TrEMBL record:
It comes from the Bacteria. It comes from Paraburkholderia solisilvae. The gene is ubiG. GO terms for molecular function: 2-polyprenyl-6-hydroxyphenol methylase activity; 3-demethylubiquinol 3-O-methyltransferase activity; polyprenyldihydroxybenzoate methyltransferase activity. GO terms for biological process: methylation. Pfam families: Methyltransf_23 (PF13489). CDD domains: AdoMet_MTases (cd02440). InterPro entries: SAM-dependent_MTases_sf, UbiG_MeTrfase. O-methyltransferase that catalyzes the 2 O-methylation steps in the ubiquinone biosynthetic pathway. The keyword Methyltransferase applies. PANTHER family: METHYLTRANSFERASE, UBIQUINONE BIOSYNTHESIS O-METHYLTRANSFERASE, MITOCHONDRIAL. This is Ubiquinone biosynthesis O-methyltransferase.
């Protein structure tokens, strides 16, 4: 059984043609991307590294990492999103390899093959996030970096990420997030430990509505990222 929710895949497939419109449904990803990219690069020094972007969607982060000199492979289970990613990479001239395959299947085929693995804004959309975390550990080389980002599960995150972002500010389409699938930092840290990864840093991301920009923060109550390493 593939660790994927057909409803979630269809939801993003239906919006695939809008992925690279900076003023459409994926506008928050475009605004968030420089923050997460800079944070990843500060830890992993992407230039010259072989990088895997799991749940790459239309390729916003994948292309950005390639732009910093990484050799990037993006994987996703949305055929439509990958089609958009492929087309945009041709237009932008960014050399990114894309494949429609689950992280778990790729882990069986190519273990310990990547210097860096990213899995951003995906864990809250799959039935069993711990399986994805375990696959990330298998895919990264010993000493390599793994990065996750997701949403915390509490009253504040529900108010900000669901009610605020989807219904009031309309930054995201209604139904983008299922609150029941949000993941507390302690839960993600437990998945990471069980997989055999070590947490190096946890960082929150906050949105400043007046300046209309995202920034890193010690506040992990809504959006947060985890930087991890595989020791062996």
């Amino acid at each position: 059984m593939t660790n994927a929710d057909p409803h979630e895949l269809q939801k993003f497939s239906d919006l695939a043609h809008r992925w690279w419109d900076p003023n459409a449904e994926f506008k928050p990803l475009h605004e968030l991307n420089p923050v997460r990219l800079g944070w990843i690069d500060r830890h992993a020094h992407l230039a010259g590294k072989r990088v895997l972007d799991i749940g790459c969607g239309g390729g916003i982060l994948s292309e950005s990492m390639a732009g910093l000199g990484a050799s990037v492979k993006g994987v996703d289970l949305s055929h439509e999103a990958l089609g958009v990613a492929d087309l945009h990479s041709l237009e932008s001239g960014m050399n990114v390899e894309y494949e429609e395959i689950a992280a778990e299947a790729l882990a069986e085929r190519e273990p310990a093959s990547f210097d860096v693995v990213t899995c951003m804004e995906m864990l809250e959309h799959v039935p069993d996030p711990s399986q994805v975390v375990a696959a990330c550990k298998t895919l990264v080389k010993p000493g390599g970096w793994v990065f996750f980002s997701t949403l915390n599960r509490n009253v504040k995150s529900y108010l900000f990420a669901v009610i605020g972002a989807e219904y009031i500010a309309r930054m995201l389409p209604r139904g983008t997030h299922d609150y029941a699938r949000f993941i507390r930092p302690s839960e993600l840290a437990a998945f990471v430990r069980a997989a055999g990864l070590s947490t190096v840093e946890i960082k929150g991301i906050v949105y400043h509505p007046l300046g209309k920009h995202f920034a890193l923060s010690p506040d992990t109550s809504v959006n947060y990222m985890l930087a991890c390493r595989r020791d062996a």
